[in-house]
Amino acid sequence: MATTQAGIAPRPDRAGLTPLLEVEDLRVEFRTRDGVAKAVNGVSYTLHEGETLAVLGESGSGKSVTAQAIMGILDSPPGFVTGGSVRFRGQDLLALPDDERRAYRGRSISMIFQDALSALNPVFPVGWQIAEMFRVHEGLSKKDARKRAIELMEQVHIPAARERAGDYPHQFSGGMRQRIMIAMAIALDPDVLIADEPTTALDVTVQAQIMQLLADLQRERNMGLILITHDLGVVADVADKIEVMYSGRIMEQAPVHDIYASPAHPYTKGLLESIPRVDLKGQELSAIKGLPPNLTNIPAGCEFRPRCPYARDICKEQRPALAEVVPGRFSACHFAQEVLEGDIESAQQ
């Protein structure tokens, strides 16, 4: 097989293949006393078997809410899915009754939550919690379920798994707790795994270990992986394509290496410029000025306009659609071509 310059086998071309998961024009709102917060506004993306999709954006951009809507675990009220579809192997999950949709959770689509300590039950041993997946969903005996749980703990590289299966969540480090969460998520061999900020609050070394573990498990099981994060630095080596979200919308959509080489949206450009670099030691870090908009009062025109250094009158008047800039690359910016080509002066005229 041919290799890239970095010596890594190139990703297979999935053009024309039927997607494993299709999210189309998904819309979610939260009805609160302060008004209606439009958290997800027309999000669309696809995921194929063996593919890794990274969903990037600041806190409040709608990344996790989109994942909760896909899983069917949105707190309602106040959250409501108001439009769109979520198709798994062609079946629209949003159209199913709750009891039928529940059957897809864990077995077809599974999720790793952001805070492992909060997600795990503090009063039961971790081995018991993993084994419960097999007892409830596959009807295994306690003995057989515990055996499978220990095998999973070993698979996610927890040392002395047999002895530690009787320990409680607080007795594990943050990285080990995240491994327990991964073991629970893959217990029923799902086709799609959603990892919501899986490396939050972990040190850099442990972050790399968790990301490598996810990549290894995905390759072994040929799962589709959705990686939700705000950190561009953790996805460069594992993702196939990136969706950049802001204010509930996708701002840019592109293969991972294309986005790093030449962003086609000012927001993506700002995120990339804010990453600390060793070759710029001692210099002031770049930052995107301002704050994301209040989702109960999203500004007219482009949502990013109040923070965009290249905004012009048209940005206030017309909300740009997510459109193809070059083959395989999409951007929701009136001046996407200029940003992509680095011709910022033309965009400012």
From TrEMBL:
| Keyword Isomerase assigned | no
List the subcellular locations. Cell membrane
Query: Which species is the source of this protein?
Result: Jiangella alba
Question: What GO cellular-component annotations does this UniProt entry give?
Answer: plasma membrane
A Pfam family cross-referenced in the UniProt record is ABC_tran
InterPro entries linked to this entry: AAA+_ATPase (IPR003593), ABC_Ni/Peptide_Import (IPR050388), ABC_transporter-like_ATP-bd (IPR003439), ABC_transporter-like_CS (IPR017871), Oligopep_ABC_C (IPR013563), P-loop_NTPase (IPR027417)
Give coiled-coil spans as residue ranges.
none
Give the primary localization class: membrane
- Which lineage ranks, top first, belong to the organism behind this chain? Bacteria, Bacillati, Actinomycetota, Actinomycetes, Jiangellales
Query: ABC transporter domain spans which residues?
Result: 21-272
Q: GO molecular function of the protein, one example?
A: ATP hydrolysis activity
Entry-linked PROSITE patterns:
ABC_TRANSPORTER_1, ABC_TRANSPORTER_2
Keyword NADP attached: no
Biological process according to GO: peptide transport
Family, as annotated: Belongs to the ABC transporter superfamily.
UniProt keyword annotations, A-Z: ATP-binding, Cell membrane, Membrane, Nucleotide-binding, Transport
**Membrane topology category:** Peripheral membrane protein
What is this protein's name? Answer: Oligopeptide transport system ATP-binding protein
